[in-house]
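User: Can you help me understand a structure? I only have the sequence.
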Amino acid sequence: MSEDSQNGDENQINSKKTLKKFTPILPWIGVFLIIFLMMIWAIYSSKAREQSADKKTGKPTMELASAVHNVDIALSSLKQNIEVDSIHRQSNLYTIIPNRPDLVVVTHTVSLGDSIFEIANHYNIKPETVLWANYDQLKDNPDMLSMGMVLKIPPVDGVYYQMVEGDTIENIAAQFNVDPQNVISYAGNQFELTNPVKNSGDWVMFPGGQREFRQWLIPDIPRGKAGVLKSVYGSGACEGNYEGAYGTGSFVWPAGNHVLSGNDYASWHLGIDIGAGEGAGIFAADSGVIVFSGWATGGYGNMVMVDHGNGYQTLYAHLSKSAVSCGQSVSQGQTIGYGGSTGNSTGAHLHFEVRYQGGFINPWYVLPAP
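Assistant: Let's start by predicting it. Here is the structure, written out as tokens:
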């Protein structure tokens, strides 16, 4: 077969393929042409028949209206039979609402395991804010927290304060180091701007305010001190003059767990809460003499205090019971009590304090790394 013959056959095949490709759309092309001609005819007919319309009403004849109607039907039928690719968008019934400050004071009922630190963290405010808002119950002492207690939780940091007779916004704002205008403009206080006054008994939020804490502490009881008042410190206070073991100057963990479980060290909480289950062994962090063993005031519950004879004292609170007695010498790591939840506590843990020459030291500074 010659080369020209082969090329002819290939061209014929390609022509058939092209024709076959366009065959499905040929009817639609015909439809479009028919509609186009009908539209031209309708326009021409409209102009031709305008002259024969009813001159009294100015309306076109029935024939013209019928022709236009037929064109509309044809176009509608064509639209229904043509598939058009398009972008489909799903409707969104929700709108994005910008974050707005919460202005409502809520309440929180203390439950098992709660601490001021954890409650504050849950509501995204500072622990001090929780203490200040509930001074009537806690008296600035986080160890006064107890199960079932209902706390007021402000929406922002600051001092939530109940006005008393003689108070003014200006003098209380000065007391809490706040600009009075910020107090009045704070929407949560709902001041009447033409007369920004609150009455005795009204609660007012002082955003960003702060005040000093009233500390509730068991005072130091050195081994040589006599005449300690049990009515003030608690029945566990030791009254004698003692001599005995001295500390090494270094410390070990007072519980088997080396983790925080509750409140951390802060200006309002001068110790750390260490995880210690009910009945778990509590150990002397260093050698020394027992100067307190038994019930303590201020929410500490059963407590042990060790004087280490070198300026240091350590305190162990909320014990289920003590394992030592007044004046007893103990060695580092010796069991001095058992974990519990006595006093004002919402769950078993150990409240541990370190003191030096009457001042407080953050226990994290002297304990070995966990």
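Now, to help you interpret it: The CA atoms of residues 271 and 353 lie 4 Å apart. The chain has nine helices and 14 strands. Let me know which part you'd like to focus on.
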